[in-house]
Design a protein that fits this description.
Distance between the termini: 58 Å
Radius of gyration: 23 Å
Shape: globular
Oligomer: single chain
Helix content: 25-40%
Number of strands: 20
Strand content: 15-25%
Strand order of the largest sheet: 1-4-8-9-10-11-12
């Protein structure tokens, strides 16, 4: 509801969003929307994560048919809808499942593992048949009546381990529930996407149940998110001492099918907005912001960006206030949003950035060790597509910077975050770049380019030379 409010400060209804949300999504270039929990819940401040009415779309935003209309309208223009779903814990309110018949019918008998002290909720006993039946039926309900395209499962680590703590042991009944859930959903409709919001290192989350895995399609890469935001919060002069925060993600990347999130949890509770996390003066903050989004969209893995992140919202997200739309009247934010829109178009039109995301042949470092200059360079391969990505994490500028490349021929820069139209200083590579017959970085050829300050450059192989 906080995406946009009515002039009187009240929430738009689901169906009223159709004329506002859909043109915006299409203009920006996103492919899916993920809705935070829409099950009925008593506490506004829980954002839906402490639910009671699993079979009721919250009345805050209208009646169920209004939500059906919104989802159907999104589908008609090719936008998928993912529902944030919370099977692990519930609100304590008496009109929910809590002590349903006066006893812990759906919860654990043991009070110690029943109470969730962090959230003030009650953990469901997912090993019980009655709980499994209730939740699977509920998932079918959202699929059958609302035609959603996927589920994002909240707090998976709290499901896998008792109270989310590996030291307290694996909850084998809950693990079996996750396997049964993913198997049942895929058996019903294999196209439904299943996402695990999981901060644990529990193995094989995105392997099929038949291969001994849990059966999710994707797992949120919480490690990448935390490491990347930690790196970007540092002054560029210190980044060379933390180079591994960016490179480490590829050391484990192929263990799962990852999605790279910049989620609501990172822009609330004093963590600051994305732009406010960035160090430096105003110019450097926006340059770092463009660099962060550029890294997210060129790094292997699917992408998730919380609302407001696409135009560099200044303040933290507030659940009862709308996004800071007035910022789009200010040139720095207009330019930031233009970069994001262009970045998404480059992403969608270059298969090298997504085609082989989860195959080792889709990515190769050019030079992951240049910590002194804080420059990262890597290759992204598609079936026929090749892109070179160069990220300069400092305000220093380099002309005639040498870079090893795998193919002889001509290259062209397709995006540079330092262009003036995005708010940069307009140092970029405007001419065709021709390979040199000088090997470098373990590759048979090389090129010389301009490396702009605090900028990302995407360079496309366009023509081979005999």
């Amino acid at each position: 509801g906080s995406w946009m409010l009515k002039p009187d400060g009240s929430f738009h209804k689901y169906n009223e969003l159709v004329e506002l949300l859909i043109p915006y999504i299409l203009e920006q270039g996103f492919t899916h929307v993920e809705l935070m929990p829409v099950i009925e819940h008593p506490l506004d401040e829980s954002w839906g994560y402490q639910g009671t009415g699993y079979y009721s779309a919250t009345s805050r935003f209208g009646v169920p048919k209004d939500l059906m209309y919104l989802i159907d309208s999104l589908h008609q223009v090719g936008i998928g809808v993912i529902l944030d779903w919370v099977p692990g814990h519930i609100s304590k309110d008496a009109h929910g499942l809590y002590l349903f018949d006066g006893e812990p019918l759906y919860e654990y008998q043991d009070l110690i593992i029943r109470e969730n002290p962090v959230w003030g909720t009650i953990n469901l006993d997912l090993g019980k048949g009655i709980v499994k039946s209730f939740l699977l039926s509920n998932a079918y309900f959202w699929l059958n009546y609302f035609h959603i395209d996927g589920f994002r499962i909240d707090a998976v680590s709290n499901i896998i381990y008792y109270l989310g703590n590996p030291d307290k042991g694996t909850n084998h009944g809950a693990v079996q529930f996750l396997k049964d859930f993913t198997y049942a959903i895929k058996e019903k409709d294999h196209s439904v996407l299943l996402f695990a919001e999981d901060s644990s290192t529990y193995p094989l989350m995105t392997k099929s149940v038949f291969d001994g895995g849990i059966g999710f399609d994707y797992k949120w890469n919480m490690g990448w998110m935390n490491d990347t935001l930690r790196y970007f919060s540092k002054d560029p002069i210190h980044r060379k001492y933390h180079h591994d925060l960016i490179t480490f993600g590829m050391a484990y990347f192929y263990s799962e099918n990852f999605i790279l999130p910049l989620s609501h949890d990172e822009v609330v509770h004093g963590k600051r907005s994305l732009i406010d996390k960035m160090p430096g003066d105003e110019w450097q903050k926006f340059a770092n912001y463009r660099l962060l989004l550029g890294l997210q969209f060129t790094h292997p893995g699917k992408k998730l960006l919380f609302m407001g992140g696409e135009f560099a919202q200044r303040h933290e997200w507030k659940d009862k206030s709308e996004l800071e739309w007035f910022l789009l009247n200010e040139p720095p934010h207009q330019k930031a949003n233009r970069f994001v829109k262009d970045l998404l178009q480059v992403y969608r039109h270059h298969p090298a950035l997504y085609e082989l995301d989860h195959e080792q042949g889709g990515f190769a470092w050019i030079d992951p060790t240049n910590a002194d200059q804080s420059i990262f360079s890597f290759l992204r391969y598609g079936e026929t597509d090749l892109l070179i990505v160069v990220l300069n994490m400092t305000p220093n500028t380099y002309h005639n910077f040498s870079l090893g490349i795998p193919r002889r021929g001509e290259y062209q820069e397709v995006l540079n975050s330092n262009k003036a139209i995005y708010g940069g200083s307009d140092i970029y590579n405007g001419q065709i770049i021709t390979s040199l017959n000088e090997g470098l970085h373990g590759f048979p050829y090389s090129m010389k380019i301009n490396v702009a300050p605090l900028a990302i450059s995407l360079i496309k192989f366009i023509k081979g030379v005999v």
